[in-house]
Amino acid sequence: MILDKLQNATRYYSLHPRFAKAFQFLQESDLTTLPLGQLEIEGRNLFAIISEGTGVPESEAKLEVHRKYIDIQYIVSGTDHMGWKDLALCEAPNDPYTAERDAAFFSDKTKNWFDVPAGSFTIFYPDDAHAAMVTETVVRKIVLKIAVEAGA
Questions:
Q1: How far is Cα 117 from Cα 107, in angstroms, rounded to an integer?
Q2: What's the start-to-end Cα distance of the chain, in Å?
C-alpha cells in the first residue's frame, strides 16, 4: 500500500508499465467535470471509475481485495477515510472472490485507519485488503483500475 500526493507521482512510474499513463490521466484531465461512471483509458487494461458521494461509518466498513487489478484511488475533493490490512493476516472472506467483480470481501476489522485528503492518492495491490469511502462527508474520487497483467 502506498499513500502520497499527486505531485510525487513520478516516483511510482517504474512500479508498473501503466502507472505513468494512469498518473498522466490524473494530471491532465479536468477531474471536477468528468461524468460519474466508468471511463476506458486503455481498454480493460486501464480504466477509471469516477464517483461522488458519502460512504459508510467505520463500524460498517468491509475490507476488500482484488486479484486482476491494482487500484490507484485519487481524491478530487473531500477527505476519504480508508483502512488497510495485509491480506495474509485476514480470515477467510465472508463474501468469496468472484472473477466477474474481481473482489472478495472480509468481515475482518483493521486498526490501520488513515485520512486521504484531496490531492492525495493510495495504491492498493492484490495483497492489500482495503476499505475505502469510510466517511459520512461527500467525497469525489477517481479509482484507476490497472490490470496486473495485460488482457485482465
A1: 26
A2: 21
Distance between CA atoms of residues 72 and 124, nearest Å: 7
* Sequence ranges of the domains in the chain: 2-147
**Residue 23 and residue 78: Cα distance in Å, rounded?**
20
Residue 17 in grid coordinates: 508499465
Q: Answer whether 62's CB lies under 8 Å from 103's CB.
A: no
Q: Is the pLDDT of residue 152 over 80?
A: no
Across 78-149, the runs of DSSP E, i.e. the strands, are 79-86, 95-98, 103-106, 112-117, 120-124, 128-131, 139-147
CATH numeric code, 2-147: 2.60.120.370
The pLDDT > 70 percentage for the chain reads: 98
Given a contact cutoff of 8 angstroms between Cβ atoms, the answer to whether 46 and 145 are in contact is yes
Single pTM value for the model? 0.94
Asked if 123 and 1 count as a contact pair (C-beta separation under 8 A), the reply is yes
